[in-house]
Design a protein that fits this description.
- By secondary structure, the protein is α+β, with helices and mostly antiparallel strands.
- It has one helix and eight strands; from the N terminus they run αββββββββ.
- Strands 1-7-8-5 form a four-stranded mixed beta sheet, with helices on one face. Strands 4-3-2-6 form a four-stranded antiparallel beta sheet, covered by helices on one side.
C-alpha cells in the first residue's frame, strides 16, 4: 500500500464520522433548542418568586419587631416575554428546625413552568392570597397572618 492510499482511507473514515455526528446533532437540535425558552422563563420566574419571598420576610420581620401591622408595596418585574398578570402565585407554610418558613411558588399559566423560593417568617403561621404577577403586590402582615394581593 502506498502512503497516499492510507491517507485517502483515513479521509473517507473521517468524512463518514463527521456526517454521522452532523446527522445526530441535526436530529437532536429541536429537542435541545426547545428547552432554551423554558429555561429563560424559569430564571425569570425564580427571580419573581425570590422578590415575593423577600417581601414576605421583610413584612414578617418588621411586624414581629414593631408589634404592629405592616404593609409593603412590591413591584414584581419580569422580562418582555412574560405579560403582566400571566403567572399565578401560591404559598405553602411549613415548620423547619423550629421556625416557620413559607415556600413561594410562581407558575406561568401558559407553559406550566414553575419556580420556588423560600422565606423565613418566624412566628407567622399563615400566608394567604392568590395574586398574579408580574405587577404590583400589596403584602400585609397583621397578627400571625400575611396576606399577599394585587395592588390596585
Amino acid at each position: 500500500m502506498r502512503r497516499g492510499q492510507v491517507s485517502a482511507e483515513y479521509l473517507l473514515i473521517l468524512m463518514v464520522v463527521v456526517a454521522l455526528v452532523g446527522a445526530t446533532l441535526g436530529a437532536l437540535k429541536p429537542h435541545l433548542t426547545s428547552s432554551v425558552p423554558q429555561a429563560e422563563k424559569a430564571v425569570e420566574l425564580r427571580h419573581m418568586a425570590e422578590t415575593i419571598a423577600d417581601a414576605i420576610e421583610r413584612a414578617a420581620a418588621n411586624a414581629t419587631q414593631s408589634g404592629t401591622s405592616v404593609k409593603l408595596l412590591v413591584d414584581v418585574k419580569a422580562g418582555p416575554n412574560i405579560p403582566p398578570g400571566s403567572c399565578s402565585v401560591s404559598f405553602d407554610v411549613t415548620s423547619e428546625s423550629g421556625t416557620n418558613v413559607c415556600y413561594v411558588t410562581v407558575k406561568d399559566n401558559s407553559t406550566g413552568v414553575t419556580a420556588k423560593a423560600k422565606a423565613t417568617i418566624g412566628p407567622i403561621t399563615t400566608v394567604t392570597g392568590t395574586p398574579t404577577v408580574p405587577g404590583k403586590l400589596l403584602v400585609t402582615c397583621q397578627g400571625d397572618t400575611i396576606t399577599v394581593s394585587n395592588a390596585t
